[in-house]
Amino acid sequence: MYPQVEPYAQGMLDVGDGQLVHWEASGNPGGKPACVFHGGPGSGSHPRWREDFDPDHWNLILWDQRGSGQSTPSVADPATSMEHNTTQHLIDDAEKLREHLGIEKWLLAGGSWGSTLILAYAIQHPTRVSEIIIPAVTTSRPEEHAWITRGLGMFFPDHFDAFRDGVPEEDRDGNLALAYNRLLNSPDPAVREKAAWDWSKWDLSTITGGDNDFEGTRYADPVTRYRLARTVTHYWGNEAFIEPNHVLDNLDRLKGIPGVLIHGRNDFGGPLHTAWEVAKRWPDAELVILNDAGHEIMNGSSMDQAITAAIQKFR
Questions:
Q1: Can 54 be counted among the known catalytic residues?
Q2: Has 140 been annotated as catalytic?
Q3: Residue 294 pLDDT class (50, 70, 90 cuts)
Q4: Based on CB atoms within 10 Å of each CB, which residue in 147, 279, 280, 297 is the most buried?
Q5: pTM flag (> 0.85)
Q6: pLDDT band at 212; cut points 50, 70, 90
Q7: Smallest Cα–Cα separation from 274: which of 84, 75, 141, 182?
Q8: For the AB hydrolase-1 domain, which residue ranges apply (predicted)?
Q9: 108 with 121: CB under 8 angstroms?
């Protein structure tokens, strides 16, 4: 909708634990603050968000979560420890970034894993959030992880058999994300590479509705493929390092914060019932259901248009 302007400022914020978090600010330095929490976990920020926010009106902040994007040390390096990479660490990083930039309150936007992180941050720091926009709502409950890694097999049995067979036989009836994470941390490069390939094949098939061809996707790059697989399995394998119903049970803390929840009815990886439950427990949120949308945000799609409308609503 708007030109993709270049950032007017960017930097690396030392958040402790040897971690440097990359951030950028674009648009109007004196404008209304908005911050995007990217998905994945591990995908890194995407400049396309600059096209959704009027650069004359918004002060838009993008940041790369620990080990992702331009943040260092990169999770793409197998030697990088993930001991200090949990949901609470990311919440603390976002708050340190807000303080570093001197922002009193900001609008938060982001979907998929970004949804969980936004809601967890807002529950902990409600006075720092002006509004929330979430396309593709998730809360990272154990049943959500189990659905993505096992339940979806009923729709994609061909892809699921290959996915399940990618781990040792003794692990095939257990926590598949954790089993893959062990392979992705193997000292053997060949084992790590195969695990990243197998995990990504399954991940892409559930997002696209069956197509798992890497060509033309972010999964085509082996470094990105490994970083994403290692980060996602780290979080999903450990149930996002939060209590099972932490987000749903604490949505009362968002009272007074207006929000727009946008969800596609055809979202295989994140079925609509999660967005429905969040909307029921957060009276200040509006739920927009899109009958023709899935999990991804495509330029010009109904999901993209709904995000634009929500941003306009909160100008």
A1: no
A2: no
A3: confident
A4: 297
A5: yes
A6: confident
A7: 141
A8: 35-297
A9: yes
Confidence of residue 11 (pLDDT cuts 50, 70, 90): very high
Amino acid at 271: P
The four Cα atoms 127, 131, 136, 141 give a dihedral, to 10 degrees, of: 20
213: Cβ contacts below 8 Å, ≥ 6 apart: 204
**Which residues in the chain are classed under CATH 3.40.50.1820?**
9-140+242-313
Q: What is the CATH number of domain 9-140+242-313?
A: 3.40.50.1820
Q: How far is CA 93 from the centre of its chain?
A: 15
Interaxial angle between packed helices 113-124 and 87-101, expressed in degrees from 0 to 180 and rounded to the nearest 10: 70
Q: In what order do the strands lie in the sheet with 129-135?
A: 9-16, 19-27, 58-63, 32-36, 106-109, 129-135, 259-264, 285-290
Task: With H, G, I as helix, E, B as strand and everything else as coil, classify residue 218.
Answer: helix
Tokens of 207: 């997002």
Residues in the chain: 315
Given 64, 203, 267, 304, the catalytic residue = 267
* pLDDT of residue 293 exceeding 90: no
Catalytic residue among 26, 43, 71, 112: 112
What are the strands, taking DSSP E only, across the chain?
9-16, 19-27, 32-36, 58-63, 106-109, 129-135, 259-264, 285-290
Q: Determine which one of 22, 38, 145, 295 is catalytic.
A: 295
Active site residue 234: no
